[in-house]
Design brief:
Layout lengths: L3 H10 L22 E2 L4 H6 L11 H17 L12 E6 L6 H13 L6 E5 L7 H4 L8 H6 L5 H4 L1 E2 L5 E4 L8 H5 L2 H13 L4 E5 L8 H6 L4 E7 L5 H10 L5 E7 L3 H4 L16 E3 L10
Parallel strand pairs: 1-4, 2-6, 2-7, 3-5, 3-6, 7-8, 8-9
Antiparallel strand pairs: 4-5
Helix pairs in contact: 3-4
Length: 294
Amino acid sequence: MRTVEERVSQAASGALTKPSARPASPAPERPATRSKRTIIDLDRLSAAGFVTPADAMSQLASEYRLIKRPLLDNVAGRSAAPVAKANMIMVTSAVPGEGKTFTSINLAMSMALELDHTVLLVDADVTRPNVMASLGLPEANGLMDVLLNPKVDLSEVLLRTNVEKLTLLPAGSGDARATELLASESMVNLVNEIATRYKDRIVIFDAPPLLATTESRVLAKHMGQVVVVVEADRTTHGTLADALETVKSCPVVATVLNKASRSDVGGYGYGYGYGYGYGSGARSGSGKGKKAKA
């Protein structure tokens, strides 16, 4: 046992110190949020003329295999020149009603059937959303909710589906500022977040028509590939030229000819290339798919 004199001597020399304060506890991490799940009625979807896993050998499914292959080659780096953000694909049209949502859904479904790819389908046509209705699903929180509320994490509004490799991001809550938000810096940041956070995933944006609004032109600057849907016997050469001019900054722009009969294109064709241009267009939307309006 130490004597009182020893303790006093140690205290005087600074040998005894006060116990250090307990370190502050780290801020609790935000718990990981698991995406919600929704069920697509695939029989209903097939009856409406869309590609589904059960119809993988149908004529429409074969046509979309032709459409998606060059896009996937760019994603895999098998193209003649590297394409930055090739997994970010925007589907649009010159004017409303040419079948862009029909094409977006079929392209997403076809790509989701690939062995090596998962797909996120984003309804970015926030003023006239049609992806959820076309899939027979109720509207849900989504893109707009993330843009409007910084507390909403992207993972909270993603919807996993019964198609194993297909996830949805609905347009979300309506807002009077929808068009401004889609062209805002917040949207640009969100697109960049998606590109970084899900860089191993193909992301398809169903975007507004190019000549009806300006939001898609802003969005196109952050895409690796743009698919412009062209309605057969309706869209004029001049209208298409004007639309393509607005997305010429995108490294890859493809055209898809929708609602065409086989004789219109002599089987099939695909308008595709670096920079922008026309091409014969890939036929899609035959049969029941001709009813697609979005």
